[in-house]
Amino acid sequence: MTFIAKPRLHHPTLKQNRIGYTRRDYEGKVSTLCAGCGHDSISAALIQAFWELDIEPHKVAKLSGIGCSSKTPDYFLGNSHGFNTVHGRMPSVLTGANLANRDLIYIGVSGDGDSASIGLGQFAHVMRRGVDMAYILENNGVYGLTKGQFSATADAGSRSKRGVENTDSAVDTVGLALLMGASYVARGFSGDKEQLVPLLKAAIAHPGAAFVDVISPCVAFNNHSGSTKSYDYVREHNEAVSRLDFWPSRDAITVSYEEGAVIEVPQHDGSILKLRKLDGAYDPTDKIAALNAIARAAADGEVLTGLLYVDPSADDLHAHLSTVKVPFNRLGEQELCPGSAMLDRINASLR
Amino acid sequence: MHPTDIRNPDYFHKVVDCQWACPAHTPVPEYIRLIAAGRYSDAYLVNWKSNVFPGILGRTCDRPCEPACRRGRVEEAQAAKTEPVAICRLKRVAADYKDDIRPRLPKPAAKKNGKTVACIGAGPASLTVARDLAPLGYAVTVFDQDAKAGGMIRSQIPRFRLPEEVIDEECGYVLDLGAELRAGVRIDSMKQLLGEGFDAIFVGSGAPRGRDLNIAGRQEAAKNIHIGIDWLSSVSFGHISKIGRRVIVLGGGNTAMDCCRTSRRLGGEDVKVIVRSGFEEMKASPWEKEDAMHEGIPILNYHVPKRFELKDGRLCGMTFQIVRAEYDADGRRRLVPTGDPDPTFECDDVLIAVGQENAFPWIERDCGVEFDEWGLPVLDAETLQSTLPNVLFGGDSAFGPKNIIWAVAHGHQAAVSIDKLLSGEDPRERPAPGVTLISQKMGIHEWSYDNDVALDARYKVPWRDVKETLKNVKAEVEIGFDVATAWKEAQRCLNCDVQTVFASKLCIECDACVDICPMDCINFLHNGEEQGLRARLRAPASNAAQDLYLQDGLKTGRVMVKDEDVCLHCGLCAERCPTGAWDMQKFLLEQTQAGPGCRTPQRKAA
Lengths: 351, 606
Prior knowledge:
The complex is a heterodimer. Chain A is α/β, with parallel strands linked by helices. Chain A has a single domain, classed as Thiamin diphosphate (ThDP)-binding fold, Pyr/PP domains (Rossmann fold, 3-Layer(aba) Sandwich). Chain A has twelve helices and 13 strands. In chain A, helix 5 (120-129) packs across helix 6. Chain A is globular and about 70 Å long. The relative contact order of chain A is 0.12. By secondary structure, chain B is α/β, with parallel strands linked by helices. Chain B folds into three domains: 1-25 and 69-85 and 434-590, no CATH class; 116-208 and 358-422, FAD/NAD(P)-binding domain (3-Layer(bba) Sandwich), CATH 3.50.50.60; 210-356, 3-Layer(bba) Sandwich (FAD/NAD(P)-binding domain). Chain B has 22 helices and 24 strands. In chain B, helix 3 crosses helix 8. The two termini of chain B are 45 Å apart. Chain A binds chain B through residues 1-4, 6-14, 24, 34-38, 40-41, 43-44, 190-191, 193, 217, 219-220, 223, 231-232, 235, and chain B through 73-78, 445-446, 451-453, 455, 508-512, 514-516, 518-521, 539-540, 542, 555-556, 566, 568, 570, 572, 575-579.
């Protein structure tokens, strides 16, 4: 953390996006996390992603649980809605908020403790239900706020800062999200924003349950030689399956791609994912292959990153429930309580 | 691009834009911090050591530091008007609020070293030479035609800009060091002076001749036509106390501004400045033009003087030709008549302030000192020695009219040359500056400087009521900052001398510094040639006058590149750095002055 606020002055050439905001307009309060925390880099990547997507900050709701990661929504998008919920219960609050007002863009921010320990059940069910959100798991493998005990995502065999070996097996968050039905699954690294920003942009735009696991080294407790979530380890073992470029529409594509080197995944909202191949034949729309690749990489001690799976025809909870297009919170008493005559008609139709 | 070698003193010196731009290289942020801390005497002494005349310069300096000030660049696109820190007027604050500093000044040398130095003219250049050499034991004799020391500071700068007490005080500090002033003595022959046996002679006689304007009517109307600098000095010395009601001042430099404002105070009610060039191209500093216009003096541009008009043998007006500027392919300006009818302006007096020239009628051309085709002495630009190695020149007499702060810089330079020359050393071997680079870290988030960037706009120096100042030529117009405003203005300084120093081997490339930097100065990317790098940065580095700070040796093989251009020196990169790879270190550069420090260290016998 720092004592002074980031000065309001900015570079004279700082650009505005299409809706007239600079990147600095997407910032929040000054971070109180430890200096060098990977989470701050993720916040910076989210700021960049929202700015690039020309999203109005007041159209966004940030929800989080408890932990270092869950403090971060205070440090980006200072003009958005926010709800710092109870430990492990962010998914249910987010689900409720999404049902009440489907017009907002939902960001769920959680950590490995919040999602893989106390909140594992909620994590599984929010994916199953296909709530339209970008669920960001800031994954550092330790409980930073309580001084660095192993979390449920710490790899078996990795060591704590004091040298103690972890004997429990790790919860595989990307594998679990895939199994549970997330329709967009990606993994990034806080130390590589070039990869992370497009992954976040595509997750925000994805019309369904999008999950991004971000390896985020804890500089205070988990950035040492025995760790598998340190800057050095992740850089040495990073296996990126592809480089993702996110384009909001076909007209917006400004880069020319070499023939055959790109997989194109059109989304049904009109946005385009362009995947520059890095790993031979990796097909991110093949769920079984994705599960295999994740398991293989885990067995080899590699950190598989990039867009791991996307369902181009995904839809969400509102589609499953056939709800009305108007957000519930804007329906009046008349629409919500249509009266006894309507109740009689409904009852009659069910007899 | 090669990694930056921060051991080269010039690298960080250039980052301190104000100090780099100052001819005397005064450590500006250092004294501004002292002012903010209320340590006015200390701030004064930092200045005094470097520029000798803080109270005088704090009112009259040409302030090359201010256009260079980083503050003017960082506010760009965010403020209605970007303005530098009021460096010059803060200098005055140090002079205004200091205690009696005389006990802290050097003492006259207890023992003379047997060497004698003559200084011609008691202006800023000569007094600087005397200040530097007298405490070392040199017997310095300063000759001046006037009764008191000060030179053009005393004769040409109007009292309403610079009170006489300030001149007396600061010239006094120099003379109290043991230099002898031979006032009222005019040197008429260099040959004779050379015969007097001085070990070295420093010529600091200024550019004393005002340029004339020989157009029709000049001779006939001579009684009411005056050369600007001569007229100003007559006013300063009390020989002139009146001028006609209608006055035309010709010229666009600072002397013209002084002439018109002085005229307003001596009875001139209808005073105008008429200048050949365009308003923007005028040589006068923008603030001096503003000050003149504030006193109701119009400035008419693109008017070329054609003739003086006479009536009954007396000046009654001036006729001009109206021109416009045209630029040829090489960007050279030509003034072309517009064809408009020539306007005539009525007037009672005309002041000519169209430039100054050097004049050395007293230096015989066969005495060994050579002159070039423009009548300027042939000099070694670094040592300021003439073709006679023990005769040196400085100030306006060296390279033509400049300003006080350049004269001071020349004085220091010449004093070093004289000290080396008379110690049997080669003056061309110039001493390196004294440089320290010290971490400012006091605790996890604590720095020994105030790193919080103030967003205030520049504060205006209060003025005395114009009704009062126009009545009295000696009433100082500017009152100077009060202590509270001075503190606020001092807070605008970005502390550019507190440098961001990067150690690659500590860096874990976590991006924390990149994310926090408010100005997007910091980058981690693959190396390339400088031009390409400048374009690839997060914020393009388009100001080629500002360096890129590059360090290699990172684990990923990338390089750290920081664009120094608009860095706020807020230290957030260092606060956010988990490993201390970034540190904020104060860079203090002091020019080496005459004395043992400027001489080659002597090896002791084994």
